[in-house]
Amino acid sequence: MKFFQLLLVASVGVILVSSRAVEQEGKRLIKTSEEDPGQWMDENEIFDLIKAKKTFIDITDSDFPEIKPEDVNIKAIPTTLRFQEIVRDVLTNLNSQRIEDFVREFSSYHNRYYAAQTGRDSQLWLLSQVESSIQGYAGSASVVEVDHGYIQKSIVARLEGADPTLKSEVIVLGAHLDSINIRGSSLQAPGADDNGSGSVTILETLREIVESQVVLNRTVEFQWYAAEEIGLRGSQAIAQAYRRDNVNIIGMLNLDVVGYYVNGVDDIGIYTDNGNAQMAQFLRILTDEYLEFGRRDLTCGYGCSDHASFTNAGFPAVMAGEAVDHPGMHTVTDVLENMSIRQVNEFVKLSVGLTIEMGEPNRP
């Protein structure tokens, strides 16, 4: 058994998040429901779950604190909108070509599997995009890698809040950066929609905030997670470290598979399980104000994506995603040509709206 201590780096650097390497002959402890205490599984058994579209969480390195509803801080979740003019002004920077170019490059790697060299190479390319995106920010900005003990790392970019009091309140935008092919870990997995689309949504949000020179009173973190596809491992490590360190996360938005579009379905999906009801309602308010698309409430199953990691750690979290499941998910057909940049734009609007409305622009 080995433990890594939390190491915070002020600017570009590495965070080592606490990890408990407890395995039974190469197996991982996998939890498939709230009631399931966990079962030890090898890689083949885990891939069988993915093939069966059975959602799960890898709890090998995790602990689940008892979270009571009253322990979840929902006081800062808005119930009305205040900054419509600023949001709409920021959205004039929305760049569809930049979004398309990102997805094309990010999905060109053989795969982004967490244990593969291409999983690391693609993550380093994303890191370079994030680093260049925060250049010239009018406030204080930084980016770090998060080391979980495997080759692929998570990435956290931070825009420090300008208000001396409110900056301790943190808003998180998250998306996983890895990809997988259900037939095997060494096979091609472009992952354009899953989850190049979510990754570019929060990157474009970061870029638009920086380019508009809007400085927020609250702190905003943009997080790209490693190893989501095999049990939410990257996001769990971060969320649980934040819980141990008493980080005051006032809201978390997870963007996962936001690019698959079916003609006539001009809706986004607001996922109401594994999450917080007040955050879901806030997404409805944002959608009605800022998006051309409508909305529909959906569910995705136990531990379906990274917002579940933050919910399990006691933070108010929610996920937004496409309204219709992508039939080519986790296959070689998950490519740019099978997704809609127009739809991704709608999720950028949602993400920008949430960031500004919750972040609260700093005004002289």
UniProtKB/TrEMBL annotation:
The keyword DNA-binding does not apply. GO terms for biological process: proteolysis. Its cofactor is Zn(2+). Keywords: Aminopeptidase, Hydrolase, Metal-binding, Protease, Signal, Zinc. Pfam families: Peptidase_M28 (PF04389). Belongs to the peptidase M28 family. M28E subfamily. This is Putative leucine aminopeptidase 1. It comes from Orchesella cincta.
